Amino acid sequence: MGNIWKNIVSNLGFARLIIIGFLFVLVLGAAYFAIPLGPLLSAALVRTGMNGIFVLAMLPTINSGIGPNFGLPLGILCGLVGALLSIELDMRGMPALLFAIAVSIPMATIVGLGYGWLLNKVKGSEMMVSTYVGFSFVSLMNIGWIIMPFASPEMRWPIGRGLRVTIALEERFASVLDHLWDFNVAGVVIPTGLLLAFLLMCLLMWFFMRSKTGIAMLAVGDSKNFAQASGLNVDRNRLLGTTMSTVLGAIGIVVFSQSFAFIQLYEAPMTMGFPAAAAILIGGATVKRANIVNVILGAFLFQSLLVVSLPVANKIITVGGVAEIARIIVSNGIILYALTQVGRGD
Amino acid sequence: MAQDNYVLEMQGIGKLYAGNRVLRDVNLRLKPGEIHAVLGENGAGKSTFMNILFGMSVIHSTGGFEGSISINGQEVSITSPYDAMNLGIGMVHQEFMLIPGFTITENIKVNREITRPNIASRLFGPKLESLDMEAMNNDARKALDTVGLNIEEWTKIAGMPVGLMQFVEIAREIDKANMKIIVFDEPTAVLAESEADTLLKAMQAIAQAGIAILFITHRLDEVMAIADNITVLRDGALVKTLPKTETNTFELAELMVGRKVEKIVQTSDLQVKTDIALSVRGLKVLMPGEVVQKVDLDVFAGEILGIGGLGGQGKLGIANGIMGMHPAAGQVSVFGTRLQLNDTKAAYNAGLAFVSEDRRGVGLLLDSSIEANIAFTAMQMRNRFLYRLGPFTHMAYGQIRRHALEKIKELDIRCTGPMQLTRRLSGGNQQKVCIARALALNPKILFVSEPTRGIDVGAKKIVLEELVRLNRELGMTIVMTSSELAELRSICHRIAIICNGNVEGILAPDDSDVDFGLMMAGTYHKLRGREVV
Amino acid sequence: MQVEIKQKPVAIVHPPASKRARLRAFLFDNMVVLLFVLLSAVGVWLSELPLGFVAMDLVSRIARNGFLILALLIPVMAGLGLNFAIVLGAMATQIAVIAVMHFGIGGLPGVLLTVILATPMAILFGILIGRLLNKTRGQEMITSMMAGFFANGLYMLLLMVMVGTVIPLENPKLMLPHGIGILSTVDLAIIRQAVDNIHIMTFAGFMALVAALLGIIGLWTHWRQRGTRRPGGLRAAYFAGGAILAGLSSLLTRSPDSSFAMVSVPLVTFAIIGLGCAFVGFISTTKLGQDFRTVGQDQHVAKVSGIDVDRTRLVAMIISTVMASWGHVLLLSNFGNLSTYGSHESVGVFSIAALLIGGATVTKATVGQALTGLILFHTLFLVSPMAGRNLLGDAQLGEFFRAFVAYGVIAAALAMYAWKRTYAARKQLNS
Q: Does the CB of C156 have a partner CB in chain A at under 8 Å?
């Protein structure tokens, strides 16, 4: 018995066990406080689908040796521009969503290539550089949101210049995926369209990881020297990883926004990379290696934690913002823990 | 009746690295002012011996050492370089322990700065004492003058020529009070000839002042020029210690190299081939530590060509350069067709393959399975083991599995199955996986570097026999680079010896030990005076 | 010990560079600073603000942030890079100041009590972050950044959830209506400007004082170097130049009609900053400072030479965190108001951006660069909104621009450092 326990601890890692344990306690707490679990599960599923593609975006960069993509905001900004364009062109519903995605992909590809070129020049410091490049670009785009020539009154401030901070999507493409083919079972609403979109992207990534190019990328991330000795171009594979991640970021924000029912501009994208990185790490990934299971499991665990913690905490103490504190501690804590594990086994 | 006064006595020194015996019962005695040379091939144990004397952590964190060390008759315990320094032992390292961003003075005085107390230090402790830059500069000036360097002591190390940096290292050791012994580790390896002469004269002057010198080298002419006594190590054991006056270069060469050679193949097997599989002209490779200056070589189709030589002389650079692992220049042709250099993919496309000397760092994905490793390069370079549909590909797991099982059987890879992670395999089995990976490409020419490094005796034989089988049964041309002369002499048709980045000569396996020793020491032509290619 | 080696002396002679080459080198080395001098000057001109107003705001910003930026210098010296975790020191101070507000102690005693309460916490935090950084060698900056975020979560947990529950505290003035958690703004009126108000000088008077001080230091530096072999370089000249500039500005602003008349300089606060500079300078001349530098240059050589590398890095982090906490005391007391969950957040980013603008890099930062960067950054910061409004019609654009500058400067410095690291490694191989 002790041996099995030791195996589990060493495989999962100390911090992960704490988080899983914490979630378990919270669920028990919810049951104890007679908080209905059905709506909680529904919310967890929606949030998993909503954030899942961001978590998936961490996978290509981790596996190609760049680490978690803290510069995800770059892709997110491209996706936002795509979404804004769909509103500007007065599109609605599913076509609007698909258009937003289609338009943001080429943008994200170009941005991803440039960003990837930079990351290739700064091997060893990718995490730091990507964080601050992300921050700089969000600040730059803040200026962009003000001076970009969008005309739609839905998006602009009624008086003054520039776009609003939040733009409602009710009339546009809010919840088109969430409500697509959704159904109710035992008090739990399953947002089928949303989950299918997420799982579809995961499936595509899974196939990619088993292709010749995907295997090459994995090798580059595992051992640059081995990859080079096998005739591979290390820089090109890293570039591929970064570009894929940026494109996923763009697609991700469109899916996220439709679920959230609002487009958020200005400061919102700035720290969106961190929770995604935390989620994939919680799912069992390390800074150097991740798989699809890490993505799905991590996204679900992380979001469940947030969803369950709020009502349970409210029953114990009436303090606003506890969920927010939990999110900050958990997500930054797991990333910090992952950083301390980097030196091992080299 | 007079008791000899030895400043250093090392007795019964032995070292075991995780089951691998690297040194066995070595003794060495040193008198004050004596210059004592330590000769040996790679793997003879010289560096380990010095690391033990100097208290390097690589010794103590791996189980310490056997034997005892005495300074001036007193047994001592040295567990850190700092201890060694306090006991009067200094070391001029092969890789300089200099800080490029610091001045000469700061380098000379690292952690031995001269300080003066001040108010803060009286209250808060000695770490806050003020640095006395003037006094330190003066000391540095004295040390520099002593080694004859007319540079301002506040010059930064960065950008200094390597020869001068070496003198700064020496200046640092001389500046230390109570130096009794200075160890020089391959001091002339990075120097030009004139700089080397200056260094040797400096060493003699230091010895005359009463400081004993231990110097590790492979350059026989230097040894004969300045050493008083010579110790020859081989395979971790002491071969002989003798005064210079009682020996000569030839004897030293033979002692360094000679051993019983076990023949795996009979020379009567060998046929003379005339097609040239690989032609190399003017090859220059910038591989750190194994620089190739100018190599001209022809490899005949169907032969096993050995490339030997001492460490750091460039032999490992040849295969790595041709395969594009390190920047290379020159002309290389494969079966008559010119090969594009600095392009690993082109090398594979030309029918070359290689097994790197760095098994763990370059040869394997340690956290991947045996089957994944074996299939990898062939998949990427030859599109084997894949299903294809237009631009999309998907790994053919079945094919990969079957191929791996075949190879495991053929090469007798001891494992729990094709899914086992290569990290878990023993050195010999890891090597077999590397070979299997290269073979999956069906190469015309196979480069193998250090094929039996770190492998136990039984597995060594199997690997070598496999190489012979590939050559005899499949007619594969093999270029084998190795530090172990014995194994080269046991399976190769011809052996090229590399010294100073050039081909010193090509010998037959049967040629005398002396010839091999002289070639490896680079003094073959000086003494023999004939060309052998 | 006498060793005589007879050989021809080897000399390395550096031919004196031509004037043009020296000028070009000067421009290249100081590219960043010159760029920002230009940018700030343009910003001041565009904002159309009277110089005296700019000076007034700048003086209070420097009073607030001067000591904080000095906390970044020692980790750079010790090879730990830019210390994004100085926010930990700020958090220690904020916890202390809340306690002091609870006890209701004001004025100078209140400030001193804050320091006394904050320091042990800062030391503890410094030890924790130091040990963490020793575990993540090679990734110190990302670790200190994430540690800052993580600690922020713990800090919020402490002040928002644990105060009133696990920590029994009742103080309706400080706490939220439910009785749990500290208010999101805490008025610090009782200690407001306690240090500042000890003595206030006019701008002209202050500049005269500065001119005198710089003049004295310059003369002393010059005199000390007369006897030594090594040429002193431009050090004395910088001080002399500074003294002249200060003296001129004092003379030009003496008139009571000048817009500088309303500028009030808190002398004691600036004196404390001056002491901070002297402290960092002093450390550089001690054995401890040399240990920092040795460890910062090459950990392996340091270790082989017998220096306790881990402990040296730990001490560097402790000093940095404690200095940050003291600096934050000055910030809060000058400001007079605490945003419980926000005052500490941008402390790291702004101080680091300022340091980099002053010409510092991830591996080298001096007191002079800190002070230069401080002035340039905060000038740019305070004129950006007005400049934005006058140039582009929108003050917001100016604000976004200054945020972009702060992040961008850090991104560029990090990229340059990383690029140089890989470039240096490749160069070493090729030589």
A: yes
